[in-house]
Specification:
Number of helices: 9
Helix content: 25-40%
Radius of gyration: 21 Å
Shape: globular
Number of strands: 10
Largest sheet: 4 strands, antiparallel
Low-confidence stretches: 1-26
Order of helices and strands: EEHHEEHEEHHHEEHEEHH
């Protein structure tokens, strides 16, 4: 379908500045719509709603990712190329400690936003797991869960009685306190999807807070998966991140 953008800008002519109005038409690739319901597209939305970034402003549109691992950036780049036939651009960050991947495309950014990818600052807005993922097949759900746990999940341990180790998988996102209930509902959606794979998790809770540069307060919203669920998580969801997979396997083997 077509998206019409009205752009207003100033034009200098013979020493005078005149206001001009232009209409730009952006066409969404109809083939992209056929991808809705696929596991790869579901994973892409999860990656963006995790630690990715989607920008839409005026005539500009972009999707970007950051990682310290080149192979993770390469995997995202390959997925976008396969799905959308768009080549991304990779940059080494100014500190030389990571990689940035950019896809500059207004039609693509608009399409991804329309089907469930959050745009802009995710802390200051409500969003949910897309309906087409919730109502989709197991592969679409699995892909979304894998994406969100790879980007936002972590594996950690704490010492309990008799110096025993308690392992858990955690998932946490921060929300502006004005959107804390919406953030909680989003995490409940993810828990419910895990239930569909018979992976049990703790209740969602608020944990910690940050004071942001603009003075607003953001709250951590999180839940955990206990070690006794790790085998099911490994089998049904898992990570395609080598470090997290290694840590998960070590925990399953009872290693510290």
């Amino acid at each position: 379908h077509l998206i019409m953008l009205i752009l207003i800008f100033n034009k200098a002519e013979k020493g005078k500045i005149n206001k001009c109005v232009c209409i730009v038409t952006v066409m969404i690739n109809e083939n992209w719509k056929k991808l809705i319901g696929s596991s790869d597209l579901s994973r892409t939305i999860a990656d963006i709603n995790g630690d990715g970034h989607l920008q839409l402003q005026g005539w500009r549109g972009a999707v970007s990712f950051y990682s310290k691992k080149k192979d993770e950036i390469d995997a995202v780049s390959k997925r976008f190329k396969s799905l959308f036939e768009i080549q991304g651009r990779i940059y080494v960050d100014s500190r030389g400690k990571g990689y940035k991947l950019f896809f500059i495309s207004k039609p693509l950014a608009q399409f991804l936003h329309e089907i469930g990818a959050a745009k802009g600052n995710k802390t200051n807005q409500a969003f949910s797991v897309p309906k087409w993922v919730i109502e989709g097949d197991k592969e679409a759900k699995r892909a979304y869960l894998k994406g969100i746990f790879v980007t936002e999940g972590y594996i950690y341990s704490t010492k309990i009685k008799d110096n025993k180790i308690r392992w858990r998988i955690g998932l946490e996102q921060y929300k502006n306190e004005l959107f804390k209930e919406e953030g909680k509902r989003y995490m409940e959606q993810i828990r419910n999807m895990l239930d569909g794979f018979e992976i049990k998790s703790s209740p969602v809770r608020f944990n910690g807070f940050n004071i942001r540069k603009d003075g607003t307060k953001s709250l951590g919203t999180r839940f955990d998966i206990e070690q006794k669920q790790f085998n099911s998580f490994y089998k049904e969801i898992g990570f395609d991140n080598r470090y997290k997979t290694s840590r998960l396997v070590s925990a399953m083997r009872g290693q510290n």
